[in-house]
Amino acid sequence: MSKIRTAIAVGVALVIGVGFTIGVVAQDKAAAVKERQDTMKQQAGDLKYIADFAKGVSGDQATAVQKAEDLHSLSAKLPTLFPAGTSNADLPDVKTYAKPNIWTDQDNFKASIAKLPELEQGLVDAVKAGEKPKILAAIGNLGKNGCGACHSTYRAKMPQQ
Ligand code: HEC
Question: What pLDDT is attached to residue 109?
Answer without folding.
Answer: 98
